[in-house]
Design brief:
Layout (H helix, E strand, L loop, with lengths): L2 H24 L9 H10 L4 E2 H8 L3 H14 L2 E5 L7 E5 L1 H22 L4 H22 L1
Antiparallel strand pairs: 1-3, 2-3
Helix pairs in contact: 2-3, 3-4
Length: about 140
């Protein structure tokens, strides 16, 4: 099997496996009222929050698309909206205590996944893995444009 096919097959397999694994690990009994997509919106809001435009930009979606999901997350108590005092058109989004708990749960999954990947590799090998993944990230960012 040639190296290009191995790389392609591995990337496709890993992409699908990570999605499945993440959904099964993240959407627990405590967070059964949200989807994996909702969890990624919570991640994009982050600890410091942000305005709708900034959050939509992180997710590469429109503000209109984000609004629909954000309405549901507000209703479920994961995020809250606050209008800017300086410009009432600007809506600031921040996590509630429930949202922060979901955010931390999601972060813990990613820490465990990263640690599992790096276990057994030397410092040099871990550096090389980082460089390879960085090159893949650059490729995907450029490919989207």
């Amino acid at each position: 099997m040639d190296k290009e096919k191995i790389i392609n097959d591995s990337l496709v397999y890993l992409f699908n496996e990570i999605l499945d694994l993440e959904e099964n690990a993240i959407i627990t009994e405590e967070f059964k009222d949200i989807s994996n997509n909702d969890m990624h919106i919570i991640e994009a809001v982050g600890i410091n929050g942000g305005n709708m435009s900034a959050i939509a930009s992180k997710l590469n979606i429109t503000v209109g698309s984000l609004t629909t999901s954000m309405n549901a997350l507000v209703k479920k108590g994961y995020v809250k909206r606050q209008r800017s005092e300086e410009d009432r058109r600007v809506v600031f989004i921040c996590l509630t205590q429930k949202g922060m708990k979901a955010y931390e749960h999601h972060e813990e999954f990613h820490k465990k996944m990263t640690q599992a990947v790096l276990d057994g590799f030397s410092k040099e090998e871990a550096e090389m893995i980082g460089q390879i993944l960085e090159k893949l990230t650059v490729f995907f960012h450029q490919y989207k444009k």
